Amino acid sequence: MPLDYQAILDEINDALRPELGQEGKVADYIPALARVPADRFGIALRTCDGFEAASGDSNEAFSIQSISKLFSLTLALQRVGDQVWDRIGREPSGNPFNSLVQLEREEGVPRNPFINAGAIAVADRLVSATKSHAKTDIVELISSLCGDKVMIDQEVAQSEAANGYRNVAVANFMKSFDKFDNNVAQVLDVYFNQCAIQMSCVQLARAAGFLCRDGGHPYRGKSVVSERQARRLNALMLTCGTYDSAGEFAFLVGLPCKSGVGGGIVAVVPETLSLCVWSPAIDESGNSHLGRKALEMFVARTRLSIF
Amino acid sequence: MPLDYQAILDEINDALRPELGQEGKVADYIPALARVPADRFGIALRTCDGFEAASGDSNEAFSIQSISKLFSLTLALQRVGDQVWDRIGREPSGNPFNSLVQLEREEGVPRNPFINAGAIAVADRLVSATKSHAKTDIVELISSLCGDKVMIDQEVAQSEAANGYRNVAVANFMKSFDKFDNNVAQVLDVYFNQCAIQMSCVQLARAAGFLCRDGGHPYRGKSVVSERQARRLNALMLTCGTYDSAGEFAFLVGLPCKSGVGGGIVAVVPETLSLCVWSPAIDESGNSHLGRKALEMFVARTRLSIF
Amino acid sequence: MPLDYQAILDEINDALRPELGQEGKVADYIPALARVPADRFGIALRTCDGFEAASGDSNEAFSIQSISKLFSLTLALQRVGDQVWDRIGREPSGNPFNSLVQLEREEGVPRNPFINAGAIAVADRLVSATKSHAKTDIVELISSLCGDKVMIDQEVAQSEAANGYRNVAVANFMKSFDKFDNNVAQVLDVYFNQCAIQMSCVQLARAAGFLCRDGGHPYRGKSVVSERQARRLNALMLTCGTYDSAGEFAFLVGLPCKSGVGGGIVAVVPETLSLCVWSPAIDESGNSHLGRKALEMFVARTRLSIF
Amino acid sequence: MPLDYQAILDEINDALRPELGQEGKVADYIPALARVPADRFGIALRTCDGFEAASGDSNEAFSIQSISKLFSLTLALQRVGDQVWDRIGREPSGNPFNSLVQLEREEGVPRNPFINAGAIAVADRLVSATKSHAKTDIVELISSLCGDKVMIDQEVAQSEAANGYRNVAVANFMKSFDKFDNNVAQVLDVYFNQCAIQMSCVQLARAAGFLCRDGGHPYRGKSVVSERQARRLNALMLTCGTYDSAGEFAFLVGLPCKSGVGGGIVAVVPETLSLCVWSPAIDESGNSHLGRKALEMFVARTRLSIF
């Protein structure tokens, strides 16, 4: 008997909504994020066959933050292929996501593309490959993937830039190891803008669709990335997608996920569906508190863990 | 059309055998391991339905080393359930497998049960739970799982003990944080002996069968662990099972794996099959060089990656 | 006009006695140390000319703890000379005194002989040089230097051994790097016993006399160490003698010092005098709270800083 | 019998000149430094009484680099007094001088004012205290101290800025911890310029004169800093003045020293004299190879070690 996804998402929404605002804390390092109301919860999915289901605040746009790292890496794979791995590792970091310690020990090579240092290194590659178009190209890729025109929240982008001293430090640190090609300010402009893209759960569930379709575009005949690349993106999400809680997510959820401090989490069930859950209050590890609970419930109910 | 596993394993054996002895290096920190000939390659699998295939030196016994951590953790889950997680984390370590740095920063709580510190903490739990029977109980669990009586190589066990200063350091370090219940020597005796168990690829492929059967015993009606525990063991293998190369294995192979410095690697395709490959020459990360290549070929050929 | 040392010590005693028990905390990691009353303060000095002055509880014996590292190093210099530096550095550690992190990064070579790892490495050298006599030889050296027969508090020694897991870890860790010659238990027996020696301020001021006399014995014609060695011992005390507060002590006191968690601090004014202050309550860095204040007062009053 | 300083300096010059160019390596991270000929050696001293002696290339100007940290700290003590210590520690770093690891662990508080991070923090204080005059004020202080008008080598300053990514990283990192008041570029402009000041051994020996005169100006009646501050500057030099070799310098030389990668080392004999030695080839720790040897010879010959 096929799963009734709409019923399952409604059930999760009903179960978790009473818990809104009880645990976790909305990210407050910049005002534009701190203003987001904590009492939001949305969830949406899209199957490989194009069936969609959604519940709660699933059409409300939020700041995708680190989820953008998934798409900037996808764009880099399209443009430079495996060269992207010349200066970026593929191992979980085992340290808080913004640590410089490891970057120092490994001489300017970030452990993976989903920690800040790694995503900034990806942005450096994109600037080399696209010149001044990197920012536009990321927005266009995402817009194409979700079938809507997505926008950058300029206030968020500017606040990120105004408070991004640690990211400036990280980029200059990589440059000191000669592992960085472009002007730091230009690269960080790309990075701060990609983090400030606004999307809803429905849009993100659609945009991640290529990851459950062996790289095939969610809406068009062509491929976004190769099958092999799609599988590897999923592997990276599983081992590195949720800050220093990747082991815990694998253990408790068992799906490739990429989260952001805006409270969104994108998850993939290979060959089956892509999903996005959003609730702004995050836990100490930077992942949405109810988002994680929702994914645990989803997997318990559907038995769709990859393990 | 069903996969012809026997043909696939033979094909891998034929393709890799010419490469024997070319790359990697047999572990040589103790004489009994250093004596193992580098020119061995074996591979074996067993499906959930009980079909078996094997190729190469698949019946030759080797030192399972860290693969034993999978079985000691399984035994601990049987005996104390989730209490095992009171003093052991579930995150990839992001550091070489024998590092004390992280153990210090995290005040005596090992990052996961598959690094040495974590496996020693598991052994401490087993000693508490089984008194003087821990060693026998591990051997009996494995023997039951593979349907053969497995043996401990006493020379290896004694050599491990004679050279195990770092493990003695690790155990005493945990004890200094009050995170260790039993006598250090007694616990390490369990640990050094479990590492010295000898098994063949065929035996290990069988013994890991419960991991692809939702925890069900490979040969008998009863459960080894619950379905949830089996899935979580697979998740741990994927994120932490191959030393500091877990990200790389997930990226290139895409299966839960547990490796040992004896050159063995156990892999699981959930709901489908369990597999073991062995070739003694290991790479810098401690994983079998040809074992990894074999797994990459197997997944490329069968498309059985979980991603 | 010559300084009236007796008046100065009395003045310090009078000024600080009202503060007894107000700040800091008696070391309590073993019962025999935890029992020491907090309300003790003693100070004593001996000039190069043999003049002595003392005030407060200056004849009460206390556990010299890490101050013993000064004498075990002196003995090692007598027995093996500069060979002692083959496996021990001479740099401040910049880390809490019992850290294994640095020992790992520097592959089993302790940063200096005054951190635990370094003192254990010194004890290893002494065991090699003196066979089973190391413990006796340290006691005899100190007894000769202070002109009294000093004793080991067996209860303290046994408690140190019973709680010394971290030191066991450190010794085994060095052994894993092949930087340790003898049986760990035998070496630690020396180390735990030397820490348990009981001495008074008067005795310690006398015993350190060779350090302000270019290495000359405080009571006899012969040399304890060469002039060069004496100066270098003073240099080591200044840069490494007070755990992770060596910079602070140099800055605020400006004299070579060696402290112990028993609350004692030995200080040296080269060419002038040796001094010992004791008060059991220690601060977070492991140094006697009032001991430090007393030294600051002494230097402010006498202007005997070396800087 | 008074020491014949001129003869001693000539003797050192004669002894070491044949070794020029044999060991160590001229700093080459910027072209203007790499061009400096390796075959230079100069030494100069000035006693508290105003007697001067010099030998070798003692009037040739070189890039003072990190020696400038001594003077910028002196200026900061003049302007803000002990407030300078609010955000800067006084402990040896125990790590290579440009490490970010420790800065991270200690949340943006540099360990001491003589590592790069600490000197940049001092420059931040100076910018707050002097507005746009910090650069000029440092030059004027030094000019006043040595009685000559000193100059900034603009090519060096610009090269430092063009290659100073790690310093940009360090400054932004401190700013990310909210431990930095001013614009990063403005502060680094001060820092890069102070490092590019050109001085000779004779000028530096004079300029450091206040450190051996209890803070009194080398040429005028007034004080540069208080006696207490002068003693504390000497203590800092001894524990932190020679990168990660402070322990070694204390052990082998036994004088407060501040070195720079340009090959200069300033040393102080409190109450007696100030000295500068210069030879451009530096060892792995960043200190002048022959400069260190010269200081060892000077102390062996004069017995002026402070220990």
UniProtKB/TrEMBL annotation, chains A, B, C, D:
Substrate binds at S66, N116, E160, N167, Y191, Y243, V261. It holds the Pfam family Glutaminase. Its EC number is 3.5.1.2. The keyword Hydrolase applies. SUPFAM superfamilies: beta-lactamase/transpeptidase-like. The keyword Transit peptide does not apply. One of its GO terms (molecular function) is glutaminase activity. It comes from the Bacteria. It catalyses: L-glutamine + H2O = L-glutamate + NH4(+). One of its GO terms (biological process) is L-glutamine catabolic process. This is Glutaminase. It comes from Pigmentiphaga litoralis. The gene is glsA.
